[in-house]
Amino acid sequence: MNTPAHMSQKEVLQVKLEVLKREHRDLDEAISALQERAVADQLTVKRLKKKKLSLKDRIQVIEDTLTPDIIA
């Protein structure tokens, strides 16, 4: 496996993308678990949703960077 010093920028972005996607899925599961509880802490749910949205935005930026523009 490549060490970070030998990874290309694209490889670094792909690794970062996978980490962010995993974190996004984990937050989704945490939010679902909290909402299933009878007395969900709405402030915590709101904060997790905000963090999840921020992660989604960061994921989109990286995906846009990795995907070349195609002029149709």
Provide structural commentary.
It contains two helices and no strands. The model has no long low-confidence stretch (mean pLDDT 89). The protein is mostly helical and 72 residues long.
Task: Name some characteristics of this structure.
72 residues, mainly alpha, 2 helices, 74% helix, elongated
Strand tally is: 0
Structural class: mainly alpha
- Our measurement of the CA-to-CA distance between the termini, rounded to an integer number of angstroms, reads 37 Å
Order of SSEs: HH
Low-confidence stretches: none
Give helix % range.
over 70%
What form results from the Cα inertia axes?
elongated
Q: What is Rg? A: 16 Å
Largest sheet: none
Q: What is the average of the pLDDT values?
A: 89
- How many helices does DSSP assign? 2
Q: What fraction of the residues are assigned to beta strands by DSSP?
A: under 5%
Task: Tell me the quaternary state.
Answer: single chain
Question: Could you outline the blueprint of secondary structure elements for this entry?
Answer:
Layout: H1 9-36, H2 42-66
Short description:
This protein has 72 residues and is an all-alpha fold. The protein has helices spanning 9-36, 42-66.
